[in-house]
């Protein structure tokens, strides 16, 4: 049996196309194209048919490739320009699509299908131009809003930085104040311990080891020897007993007892009483 020629394959491909069997139609067109080598007109016609079949399957890149190849082989025919314009439109290349369709319409102004495609293409180009214009304007608005936001953000960051610096200075000042207070407290405690040590040393030198002999109560409490009101004695006692309490840093049992005995001796009461 003789192999079918390109005409038979093309005709069979057309029949399959009419029956919406586009994949099989493409196969027959491809086989026919392989047997039409050297015949430009026939090859161009087969390419247009295959471009239409590709379009039915939504294969727009393949459809465009066949249409452009048909133009390169057989020139800008009405069908080739139409197929190229449709494929370009579907690929989003609206300006190029309109150019191809207008070329096709110039070849046959009476063709309503191409004229309709030209009108649709012009509407799409105008609509895209409007949308692009709106998009550009919107983009400029967004960029301006972003610029203002960034400026405001920088101002907020600067204000936040100043606030943090002020807080840090305040914390540093508080820490410095705490440190000065701690140093003064340690200095007072150290001076008190030194006085206590000096008193103990004087007692040892005077041979006052007897527990029954006590220092002058006014001297122990740091009061004037000529005497003072009971209220002042009580306030001085409370201040000293708080500092030299054994549970406090720098305090001692010996100093605590000395202060307590001096207070009892001056007021003639026990420290458990509260007047």
UniProtKB/TrEMBL annotation:
Transmembrane segments: none
Coiled coil (UniProt feature): none
J domain ranges (all copies): 216-275
Region described as Disordered: spans on this chain: 171-231
Keyword vocabulary terms for this entry: Repeat, TPR repeat
Molecular-function GO term, any one: Hsp90 protein binding
Pfam families assigned to the protein according to its UniProt record, in alphabetical order: DnaJ, TPR_8
Sequence ranges of Basic and acidic residues compositional bias: 171-217
Translocase recorded as keyword: no
Name of the protein this chain belongs to: J domain-containing protein
